[in-house]
Amino acid sequence: MNFNTVYYEPDSLTYPLGQKLKADFSHLPWIPIKSHNRIEEMQKKSNAEFYKMKSYLIIGTRKTHRYVENAKISDYLVPFTSSGCTAACLYCYLVCNYNKCSYLRLFVNREQMMDKLLKTSYQYSHPCTFEIGSNSDLILENTITQNLQWIIPYFAKEGRGNITFPTKFTMVEPLLPLDHQGKTIFRMSVNPSSIIDQIEIGTASLSKRIQAINSMCEAGYPTGILIAPVILTEDYKQLYEELLITLEETLTEKTKKQLFIEVIFMTYSFIHRAINQEAFPNRPDLYHKELMTGRGRGRYCYRPEARAEGEIFIKDYIKKYLPEAHLVYIS
Ligand code: SF4
Prior knowledge:
globular; 331 residues; alpha/beta; pyruvate-formate lyase- activating enzyme; binds iron/sulfur cluster; five-stranded mixed β-sheet; 18 strands; single chain; 21% strand
């Protein structure tokens, strides 16, 4: 990650992680801000500057810690150590949630967040799964915070149930020797290579992602893949069949035996379109008038008939190429 400026809440320097970041990025200009949520200078920037804004690193503390129920792979979505990311997937849902401020924000009060997570993990009658990576990419974040080397063994020792996070990055080496006790579930997002190249700007290649899944499985982590988001390009059947063939050929036997799969179809929005047209004018337009329909608040999803056809196709081909894998849901 190549940052050129750090914006920081002065209070964050009273935390050990804040001090570490201050030392690591001492060569950059540091600009004090009142709140990581409202940086006036950023709010004034045009859509065309969207990608440039990803070169700012924002450091603060997380003040709201409300868990949201979730009925997919996890029981709760947990606001955790970061939000946003330096990559720029053209469909990234963080763009909708945070509009232009989907740049990387690091929250240095990790002890407070961990404390709540550990306590909450004992509050329910059954062990729960906590999604700690829904607002950012923790593998990417970890390259500058090393938070996962602290979180994974800590939760293994003190927590109940599981934690999980998805990623599109592959810097997993520091996680391989950790004492995780099978309580961290690792999920890698995959897509056909041409979609990664054109649409998932700044993320890891498919072959590196597959190597990372195999390594994490070999290290004993429960591992899954997200085929996400499925994008209904004109040639999607060919692209996704090729993807499944590649997975069949390159995932290890051990990985394939324990693999679980989530499938998520793309949603898009008016805001994405407006930003992408100005910030990435040479990239494909993901809005497809015939295939998409409105879903309220300027959001679009695939029309039921197009989606139904896509679902049947993906289900059949998962069964064909990865018959041992467990398909958890399609959404
Ligand atoms: S890697 Fe994840 S968080 Fe980052 S831009 Fe892509 S979808 Fe968004």
